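dude i think i finally got it to work??
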Amino acid sequence: MSKIQTPKPKGKDSQTNEVSYFQFSKELALPIYIKVDFSIFDRKLGLLLKELRFEELPKDKHQSILENIREKNHARLLILQEATSVVARQIDSALETDKYGLEGITPKEGYRVYRFKGQALLVYSFSSVIWQLGCFSDFGAEGKGHFEARIILNRFLSWALSPLGIIGFWGVPVDEGIVVLRNFESKGEAVFADVMNKKLITQDSIIKMRGRFNILKLDSTLRGRNIRMNSEELMGFLTTHSSFFDYSGLSMGVRQMIHELSKQAQGLIHPRENFKPRTDLSL
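look at this
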């Protein structure tokens, strides 16, 4: 994991019956894939991937994925690998940057390393189709580490989808739009806005972003009314709650998407006590 590797497609995977490929939001034909060997990883990881809108692909499609993935613009294949002893020590080690949080990105020459302390190490490059996630065999299983796995996979999606014009935010959908939260408040759930095509990709469905699309910020001190945010206030709020992050800050493309979304949507500060996930807020 010390450097980016780009495996060559082979005729067949080893232990073929245990290897699965998953595609994100297949109905939108997004070229974002994850490869898992279930002879190594817990089968319950498949349930988490399903929650995150990854659909398992038939075994007879595996070879065509490997053959076609390099031909698609901005395609990404994340390969889950069991951490070696060297990688495990990197994951668990104490670093100076830990004082800023459990997540961090280290820039290397030609690639970057994302680390979630105690959980995983992701090696990626925006010029490479194949990315690698070193983690432990219980990654994504129920119980301890489940929340962290959701965050890690949503980070991957945020980086993979951004070149396709899709931006992610920590939050949950409601009838009028989305409530944007911090990742621990949303329990690692993220929503993804396809700004140009005016679609919202949630765990539950694909939602059309209509003219009265609201983005809500919760306020514990507010009672009985909503306060409208102007576009600059909404833009600042979305910037600090994006699921995309990088050691050098948001990319130009992500900033442009947030700017455009801030013009399209209406930002509202809403009483926290009135918030009910996935129900009519009766604004």
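The helical segments are 44-51, 62-68, 85-92, 146-161, 231-240, 252-264.
im so relieved honestly
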